[in-house]
Backbone:
């Protein structure tokens, strides 16, 4: 695995392993040793698109005033510097790391001018939500007669706070009973919310009513006065307004007017205005109702409206990611993870997906795509490697539109590959760069690791040496058993298709036979030809017909069907390879025909082929090529 990819995996591991959720986002931290990665962005050529003004605004989103040390950084390094800042919240850190590890050269600039503000908004919303949750617990503490200034009490999560209430109030009281029931076995956030929003206040009201009924006139008056003062204090706590003796002891109308002039919520503002505008004969009751119940109910409506808006925003963002993943067709795990988050439909499920779930899914999709996309130069387009007439390994780079161009030697020239019997390509060592596997002159299965820039290097034996593959008639690569690691299938000396399971680190183990009789096949390739996300095998059979053998995703293949009109139309083809050559996310077949021309046959995603257009200038330019992969 390359240094850059190692750094990427360390950083991602540090984020994923240490990011947890409660009622508020928790900031991710570094994996051990990950700070050494700052000098090695995944992007090969860092960009300098962001202006100093862009960087000032971006850093300002997290409250940082950048100095010259940040201004001189390229876009990717600036993003990493943001990730390292303590001021960055978990959403900003997660998005910064995601961008830093992206191979998209424009991702860093987009983060600087747009993405950081969205992520900072998520962090701000999380802080608002936690502040509101603490305010609610403070309000309840006052209502039930506990000390709202006790930080340890207010900082508890909702369930533990209610448990503390149950422990501290008078046993057998209505509040005690309500708290007990709210945390009984089988209860959850819904029951805790009910207690905190209305249950505690209702139970406390019953307790005070009973106490007043038993008290003499003087004591009853004191209890009523305390009840009113507690209700005022509780509402101020809930609305995040300052609690002062002046406001708590103010006449009810003056108190409600203070709330009206200072509360931020539109529903609270409206409810307080309605109370203030009540007719004279109803004014006292309207003001009292607002203080005891109406203000809290209005605040709940404000919170519900804000939560609905927040939820809708998250759904919009996750839906956009889901739709793009489905349109891309190479990101089934990302699409499925987004769908799962949307189906659950809670703020937490959507936040979790945006913060880390999408990264896990993207990594799975990258591993999946690496078993299909044979991209030797890192531009995301399918290339072809081939052993030419001189015995040299060359790469021919695809343009994503069905044409090829000269890409140069992948290995020092001099005919070193002239005696290699077969080659195939895919990512075999898990670094998401396309490698070459070959049966060499001694009949050994060898790995040649790609560097992502069109070159390969010695990667060692994938199977014990000794010529075990000497009489093999073909090898192909793909994920045949669904573990997102590239396997090798090959036609052995007896004409059986044998599976060799990849370990993701450049070695294979015996996976048994896959089914069918392959002795008369002239060429085979692997890919997902029918769109079911399972690796199939296509091949030119003994009758020179192109047949498809769908894979079951568990290492076996099923009966073949024609991909092209029967009648020996593929006679004379010297070699074939599979991949998405025209950028439509469907697997095509390219081959050297009887005239030694490289032709493209476009897959329809349902097991059929069409076309036959030239990928290279015609005239037999591919004569003498020994193998392609």
Residues:
């Amino acid at each position: 695995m390359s240094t850059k990819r190692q750094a990427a995996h360390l950083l991602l591991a540090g984020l994923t392993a240490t990011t947890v959720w409660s009622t508020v986002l928790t900031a991710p931290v570094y994996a051990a040793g990950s700070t050494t990665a700052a000098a090695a962005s995944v992007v090969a050529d860092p960009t300098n698109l962001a202006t100093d003004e862009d960087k000032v605004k971006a850093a300002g989103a997290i409250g940082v005033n950048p100095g010259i040390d940040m201004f001189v950084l390229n876009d990717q390094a600036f993003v990493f510097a943001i990730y390292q800042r303590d001021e960055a919240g978990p959403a900003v850190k997660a998005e910064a790391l995601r961008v830093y590890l992206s191979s998209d050269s424009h991702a860093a600039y987009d983060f600087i001018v747009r993405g950081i503000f969205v992520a900072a908004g998520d962090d701000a919303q999380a802080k608002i939500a936690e502040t509101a949750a603490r305010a609610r617990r403070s309000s309840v503490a006052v209502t039930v007669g506990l000390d709202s200034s006790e930080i340890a009490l207010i900082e508890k999560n909702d369930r533990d706070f209610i448990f503390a209430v149950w422990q501290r109030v008078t046993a057998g009281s209505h509040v005690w009973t309500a708290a007990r029931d709210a945390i009984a076995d089988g209860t959850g956030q819904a029951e805790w919310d009910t207690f905190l929003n209305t249950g505690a206040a209702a139970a406390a009201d019953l307790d005070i009513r009973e106490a007043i009924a038993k008290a003499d006139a003087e004591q009853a008056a004191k209890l009523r006065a305390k009840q009113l003062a507690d209700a005022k204090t509780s509402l101020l706590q809930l609305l995040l307004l300052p609690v002062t003796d002046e406001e708590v002891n103010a006449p009810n109308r003056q108190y409600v007017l203070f709330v009206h002039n200072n509360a931020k919520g539109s529903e609270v503002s409206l409810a307080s205005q309605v109370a203030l505008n009540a007719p004279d004969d109803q004014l006292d009751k309207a003001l009292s109702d607002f203080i005891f119940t109406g203000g809290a109910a209005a605040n709940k409506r404000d919170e519900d409206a804000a939560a609905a808006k927040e939820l809708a925003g998250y759904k919009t963002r996750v839906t956009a990611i889901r739709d793009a993943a489905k349109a891309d067709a190479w990101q089934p795990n990302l699409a499925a993870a987004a769908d799962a988050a949307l189906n659950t439909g809670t703020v937490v499920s959507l936040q979790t997906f945006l913060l880390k779930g999408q990264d896990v899914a993207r990594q799975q999709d990258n591993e999946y795509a690496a078993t299909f996309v044979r991209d030797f130069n890192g531009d995301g387009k399918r290339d072809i490697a081939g052993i030419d007439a001189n015995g040299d390994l060359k790469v021919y780079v695809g343009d994503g539109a069905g044409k090829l161009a000269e890409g140069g030697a992948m290995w020092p020239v001099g005919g070193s590959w002239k005696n290699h019997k077969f080659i195939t390509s895919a990512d075999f060592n898990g670094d998401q760069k396309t490698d070459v596997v070959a049966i060499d002159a001694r009949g050994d299965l060898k790995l040649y690791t790609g560097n992502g820039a069109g070159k390969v290097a010695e990667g060692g034996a994938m199977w014990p040496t000794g010529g075990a593959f000497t009489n093999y008639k073909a090898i192909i690569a793909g994920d045949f058993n669904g573990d997102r690691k590239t396997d090798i299938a090959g036609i052995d000396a007896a004409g059986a298709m044998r599976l060799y399971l990849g370990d993701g680190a450049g070695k294979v183990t015996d996976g048994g036979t896959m089914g069918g009789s392959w002795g008369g096949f002239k060429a085979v390739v692997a890919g997902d030809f029918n769109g079911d996300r399972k690796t199939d095998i296509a091949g030119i059979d003994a009758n020179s017909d192109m047949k498809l053998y769908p894979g079951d995703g568990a290492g076996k293949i099923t009966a073949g069907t024609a991909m092209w009109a029967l009648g020996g139309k593929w006679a004379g083809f010297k070699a074939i390879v599979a991949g998405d050559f025209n950028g439509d996310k469907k697997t095509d077949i390219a081959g050297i025909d009887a005239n030694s021309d490289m032709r493209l046959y476009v897959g329809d995603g349902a097991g059929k082929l069409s076309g036959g257009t030239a990928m290279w200038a015609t005239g037999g330019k591919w004569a003498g090529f020994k193998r392609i992969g």
The chain has three domains: 1-130, 215-356, 384-628.
